[in-house]
Amino acid sequence: MSLPDPALVVLVGASGSGKSTWAAAHYRAEEVASSDTLRGIVGSGPHDLDASTDAFALLESIVTARLGRRLTTVVDTLGFDPARRLGWLALARAAGLPGVVVVLETPDAECRRRNASRDRPVPASVLAGQLRRSREVAGELDGEGWDVVLRVAAEGAPPVPAVETARAAEHRTASTGVEVLLHVSRFPWGEEPMTWLRDIALAADEAGFAGLSLMDHLIQIPQVGRVWDPIPEPWVALGAIAAQGTSLRLGTLCTPVTFRPPGITAKAAATLSALTGGRAFLGIGAGWWEREHAAFGLPFPSAPERLDELEYSIRAMRALWAPGTKAYASDGVFLPETTCYPRPSAPVQVLVGGGGELRTLRIAAELGDACNLTTSDPAVLRHKVEVLRRHCADVGRDPSEVAVTVLDLPVVGRDRDDVWRRVEALRGRTAAATFAARTHAGTVAEHRDRHARLAALGVSQVFLSTPDLAGPEDVLALAGLTT
Ligand code: CTP
Ligand code: MG
Fold this sequence. Notes:
Shape: elongated
CATH architecture of the largest domain: Alpha-Beta Barrel
Helix content: 40-55%
Strand content: 15-25%
Strand order of the largest sheet: 6-7-8-9-12-13-14-17
Number of strands: 17
Bound molecules: cytidine-5'-triphosphate, magnesium ion
CATH class of the largest domain: Alpha Beta
Distance between the termini: 56 Å
């Protein structure tokens, strides 16, 4: 860099743009007149705004005295005030010195990052105003008569690479008419839980799944595995998956209302939404397995009470996710305030789990974005959808606002031989034909046809969980179902 010397050098840039750092790298401390330093001399510290008037008076004296002696003077303030800038330039001209402006063109995000890591950050709204103003000032300088306008791009600390967590949710509806999400309920991760989870998530993304859901149980359920098999806390595991840079929507299927108070679940889902740029969903149900409640010291009220709790919880969570912080009192829910930050980055899809016709489907119709049915039997499904639609009519809800989703637990094989090998390995004591029928055992092509039939019944999302999912290659083998 070769700037005229001696000269007047006026710095321009928002807080954290690196003005003081740049000045210190190129000039002696005595050559720099800094409003912050002077606040520290006549006030309690560099951020003592009460000392601003005195500090700026001193700054003017110093600039006048130094320029009068034809000494290089660097003015380290925000540099946003045109009258002050022109005043300093006039002093330089009077002394026969050239005037230089140095604009720190540090990207906004970098200024924010540096600001946030300071002991006394400038409030975000103030910094936002400065960043706006610095763009205006950049345009004003050319007409002011400076000898040199030097624009300094960000230097020093390389920008922190953004983790690719904020990718928007893509619509990934298969040509069968349903969106297919991978549901993970077993975790044969051996010695490397994080590697296994990462590989499953990356494979699900690569295979074109629209999302990934995790089962929420405290002990592995008998339908899936043995009680000593690992079953992770899903919100923690989803946080780890969120960091893998996929486009997957992420959530639980289903979180029992009995595990966590609704506010804690709302907080977890909102945090996941913030971390994923709005790709979080929440499956929620009344809970059913008494044993895990007893084991973990959790109350397990009667079914009607749990359904009351389900209803209450959805109302409370929606209140906490809504804008504003005002008190909420409605339908038996009372919250003295609804201060819950971060807010979800996009609405959290609430899927009400279970097919109970009297209450569960009614709760879904009234409060859900979707009902999640655990059957993919066409006759049963047709009936449940009818019941749901009736409840929608009863509560005055547009049925198109309540999606029908299905937890689908099929055996999927490469070909007929592979299908029957899997049936034989999985059926336990159940007769092979019964097991094959119950799990719709078939090839990818056969399951595609079945999914198309589900779509015709009104199903829009399928949560696919294969009983023998062991690793990423099993996920990739399902890719034919997502396109
Ligand atoms: N910084 C950095 N890399 C740079 C320049 C600055 O990491 N190339 C850091 C500094 O160490 C400091 C912060 O960013 O912690 C702000 O830099 P500073 O020079 O103090 O910014 P100013 O523009 O002087 O900010 P202010 O207006 O608040 O004085
Ligand atoms: Mg500074």
